[in-house]
């Protein structure tokens, strides 16, 4: 009898690779590079696969699922986001989906704080001036490169899951004044209290659900996008949202580029309608050419989707992805499974 086939679309970090390789009862077909596997390679190799381990750049759609055929039991995604996966399709085919939502919380929350400070304190603009040799022409003076301050700010979240709550935990140390957040059920509290910050005044800072996106936009000094990309959150931060934000406020996106309408953001920054932005993600990434209009915005800091890019986090994501793949094949409990 032939061995069950698993397809893995990247080379994995040492420990996770060893864990995968130790399964001699599997036929492992793996793209042997850190760079994305071409779609054609994935389609060619998916035939008769029982499991596929993918990255957020690999689309799981009808074409792939039907190419794999009836042997396909499980998809394991090396990510917290699942917007690259047609979840309804997997459900209808009884295919399980593993993901890594807990592994990267701290790393992404750290980066969220970094981007917030960079946007408020004009980090990108300040560094560019030094690198461009402009410092000699701008000796210290009281208003040089001034910006808003995190202490005393109201911070608004779109989406209030683990990463957002881990960010709040950090921001409390900076003396923020208030936190408002919008979930997919406006006006209702978060489904889960991950750090004991919610419900019953456990924190001295008010942390309250907002009734609408308008409330988050108009009240916040910092707006943090932390929600999943779905048809209802696509371009949630668009022209109207940005028009309601304070002129002194900054926008931070650590979720998915598509939640923010890039053209509207460029226009708002260009016209000084908001103070700045800190982005880990952008629509159309990684195709951001040198002449992209967002790169002309001095008050926008853009980094290339590095939210989870710490060594321990990526090691854990890799290990959990392999464990989820194996559990999916064997009908066992995954480390984290999407409830389809
Ligand atoms: C994910 O896993 O979805 C993150 O965006 C990676 O940083």
UniProtKB/TrEMBL annotation:
* Gene Ontology molecular function, alphabetical: glyoxylate reductase (NADPH) activity; hydroxypyruvate reductase [NAD(P)H] activity; NAD binding
Q: Which SUPFAM superfamilies match?
A: Formate/glycerate dehydrogenase catalytic domain-like (SSF52283), NAD(P)-binding Rossmann-fold domains (SSF51735)
One of the Pfam families matching this protein, by short name: 2-Hacid_dh
Q: Where is the signal peptide?
A: none
Q: Start and end of every D-isomer specific 2-hydroxyacid dehydrogenase catalytic domain?
A: 6-339
Cellular component terms (Gene Ontology): cytosol
Q: Which UniProt keywords apply?
A: Oxidoreductase
Instruction: Say yes or no: keyword Oxidoreductase present.
Output: yes
Domain called D-isomer specific 2-hydroxyacid dehydrogenase NAD-binding: residue spans: 113-307
> Which family is it part of?
Belongs to the D-isomer specific 2-hydroxyacid dehydrogenase family.
| PANTHER family named in the record | 2-HYDROXYACID DEHYDROGENASE-RELATED, GLYOXYLATE REDUCTASE_HYDROXYPYRUVATE REDUCTASE
Q: What is this protein called?
A: Glyoxylate reductase
């Amino acid at each position: 009898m032939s061995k069950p086939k698993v397809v893995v679309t990247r080379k994995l970090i040492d420990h996770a690779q060893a864990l995968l390789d130790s399964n001699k009862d599997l036929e492992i077909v793996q793209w042997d590079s850190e760079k994305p596997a071409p779609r054609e390679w994935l389609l060619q190799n998916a035939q008769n696969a029982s499991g596929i381990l993918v990255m957020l750049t690999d689309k799981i759609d009808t074409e792939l699922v039907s190419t794999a055929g009836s042997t396909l039991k499980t998809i394991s995604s090396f990510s917290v986001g699942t917007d690259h996966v047609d979840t309804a399709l997997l459900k209808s085919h009884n295919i399980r989906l593993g993901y890594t939502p807990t592994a990267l919380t701290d790393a992404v929350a750290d980066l969220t704080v970094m981007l917030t400070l960079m946007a408020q304190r004009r980090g990108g603009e300040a560094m560019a001036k030094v690198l461009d040799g402009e410092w000699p022409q701008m000796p210290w003076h009281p208003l040089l490169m001034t910006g808003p301050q995190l202490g005393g700010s109201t911070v608004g979240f779109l989406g209030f899951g683990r990463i957002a709550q881990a960010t709040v935990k950090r921001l409390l140390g900076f003396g923020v004044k208030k936190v408002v957040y919008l979930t997919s059920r406006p006006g209702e509290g978060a489904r889960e209290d991950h750090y004991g910050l919610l419900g019953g005044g456990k924190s001295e800072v008010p942390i309250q659900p907002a009734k609408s996106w308008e409330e988050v936009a108009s009240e916040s000094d910092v707006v943090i996008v932390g929600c999943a990309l779905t048809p209802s959150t696509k371009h949630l931060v668009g022209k109207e949202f940005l028009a309601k934000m304070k002129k002194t406020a900054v926008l931070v996106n650590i979720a998915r580029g598509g939640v923010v309408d890039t053209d509207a953001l460029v226009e708002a920054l260009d016209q000084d309608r908001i103070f700045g932005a800190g982005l880990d993600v952008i629509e159309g990434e990684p195709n951001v050419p040198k002449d992209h209009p967002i790169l002309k915005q001095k008050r926008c800091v853009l980094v290339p989707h590095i939210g989870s890019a710490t060594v321990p986090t990526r090691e854990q994501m890799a290990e959990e992805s392999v464990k989820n793949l194996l559990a999916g094949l064997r009908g066992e409990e995954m480390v984290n499974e999407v409830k389809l």
